[in-house]
Design brief:
Elements (H helix, E strand, L loop, with lengths): L12 E7 L3 H6 L3 H9 L9 E5 L5 E9 L1 H6 L14 E6 L3 H15 L14 E3 L7 H19 L7 H15 L2 E6 L2 H5 L2 H7 L7 E7 L5 E6 L1 E5 L8 H4 L7 H15 L5 E11 L11 E3 L5 E3 L7 H14 L4 E6 L3 H7 L4 E4 L3 H13 L4 E3 L17 E2 L8 H10 L8 E5 L3 E2 L9 E2 L4 H11 L6
Parallel strand pairs: 1-3, 1-4, 4-5, 8-10, 8-13, 9-10, 12-16, 13-17, 14-15
Antiparallel strand pairs: 2-3, 6-7, 7-10, 11-12, 14-17, 18-19
Length: about 475
């Protein structure tokens, strides 16, 4: 079960959030024996410092968590989450939050910190539960945490248990939970249905490629989410070296992210019409594999020269984006673990995005800042379009030279979105390399809270 809030309880304990500059004032509110305990423990309210306070029964009666100084707080996110692994189980409430927005942030961080992936080992230790702080939108916070837990579960599951069929089943389970509709096109039927590049990328695997198409909602503006679902990426005939293949179970992180976001949207019954498209494939090696030098025809009609079979994600996304563009939504967003160049540019924490729409870019940047979900706009630099044009075909899937790889990938995808005026593409990493507050090591959603926060201003619920 995803972490959620616990009911209020008479014996609930308090976690005090204490800024360094507020330490003297806070200790002044304590009983003399508590003040002596805090002083004796050497608690200075430095960032992440935890002081457990004794209760009348000799157990833990309360706790204090240091927030550090203003500089430390500016660098940190979800401060209360740092305490969750170290607090005893039972019900807790927060004290010392700086208004409703801070309380909501700390509460979300607490729930995110309660995530554990235990499918293959362990059961997870009993964790402390949080009583929803006053003044926060508890259902919204819980829905975001549940959506993130779904994303993490999907990414963390190894590819032997998370192939195209299992990804389809996860989408079907989500649809059943929320009353959505699902249509799936599988195997050779992709050719008849006009998805030749999805078929080409996935045909070498015995696990049939497919396009998952989920729809929910009957009124309101339209939002289409497209997520890259490459369930494992060997690189194809341009085979990856072993150390580059070790994390390729996460190459369906874009699909996991949009499914997690879809859960949150549907759980909150947002007034919109949602469509989710996931091209689900395994990029494998066999005699049926597509080859360097092949020229493929896309759903949109453009021909694509294959100069690297390891640049396969943009191929499957292109067919799915072309389908989305045939009935242009009010907002179209694609998410993919697409390029190593994006990681070189901004590292693992930040999700770069691309859009020609200035208002959309502003809304996403503001959402990322408000939701502690760091995103950053990279440019769709028009002069680089020439790098996509190989001469033998309309487009090159892997321009030579090694420069601007994230930008040229985004420009490639933009060629397949010609009718939809408002489109953004996210090039995410989908993985937390080392544990941090609210982000255990492993699969992680990126950009989804920024999108969720931006939706009300981007989609007019009054539109039909």
């Amino acid at each position: 079960m995803p972490p959620s809030f616990v009911p209020d309880a008479p014996g609930a304990r308090v976690l005090h959030l204490v800024a360094a500059e507020d330490l003297d004032r806070w200790t002044g509110t304590l009983a003399p024996e508590e003040r002596a305990w805090v002083t004796g423990a050497g608690f200075k309210a430095s960032v992440g410092a935890l002081c457990l306070l004794p209760g009348a029964d000799g157990g833990v009666g309360a706790a204090a968590l240091g927030l550090g100084d203003a500089q430390a707080r500016a660098r940190g996110r979800f401060a209360a989450a740092a305490a969750v692994p170290h607090l005893p189980e039972g019900a807790w409430r927060l004290d010392g939050t700086d208004g409703p927005e801070d309380a909501a942030e700390q509460a979300l961080g607490w729930l995110l910190a309660g995530y554990a992936f235990t499918r293959y080992a362990g059961t997870g230790r009993p964790l402390p539960g949080l009583i929803a702080p006053d003044g926060v939108d508890a259902p919204r916070i819980a829905a975001m945490a549940a959506g993130e837990a779904l994303t993490r579960d999907l990414i963390n599951t190894p590819s032997n248990d998370m192939g195209p069929d299992e990804l389809e089943q996860a989408a079907r389970a989500l649809a059943t939970e929320h009353g959505a509709r699902v249509a799936v096109t599988t195997g050779d039927a992709l050719l008849d249905a006009g998805f030749p590049m999805i078929h080409a990328v996935g045909r070498a695997s015995p696990r049939a490629p497919r396009l998952i198409d989920m729809a929910w909602g009957d009124a309101g503006p339209t939002l289409t989410l497209v997520g890259k679902g490459v369930c494992f990426d060997t690189g194809g005939l341009n085979l990856k070296p072993g150390n580059s293949m070790s994390l390729m179970k996460k190459d369906m992180g874009g699909a996991a992210a949009v499914l997690g976001l879809a859960h949150t949207i549907m759980a909150l019954a947002l007034p919109l019409r949602l469509r989710v498209l996931v091209p689900a494939v395994e990029n494998a090696v066999s005699g049926a594999a597509f080859r360097p030098g092949d020229i493929l025809r896309s759903r949109k009609g453009q021909s694509v020269e294959i100069n690297n079979t390891d640049a396969e994600g943009r191929l499957v996304l292109a067919d799915a984006l072309a389908l989305a563009d045939e009935t242009p939504p009010d907002l179209l967003v694609s998410m993919a673990t697409l390029t190593g160049a994006a990681r070189v540019a901004v590292g693992p924490d930040i999700a770069p995005f691309f859009t020609h729409d200035a208002a959309l870019a502003h809304a996403l940047a503001a959402g990322g800042q408000a939701m502690r979900d760091p995103v950053w706009q990279l440019p769709l630099h028009a002069p680089y379009e020439a790098m996509l044009e190989p001469g033998f075909a309309d487009l090159d899937n892997a321009p030579s030279g090694g420069f601007a790889g994230a930008i040229t990938a985004a420009l490639f995808l933009n060629r397949f979105v010609t009718e939809t005026p408002r489109y953004a593409h996210f090039d995410i990493y989908g993985w937390q390399p080392a544990a941090a507050p609210a982000r255990p090591k492993g699969g992680v959603g990126q950009g989804v809270r920024a999108i969720l926060h931006a939706l009300p201003g981007l989609l007019d619920a009054g539109d039909a």
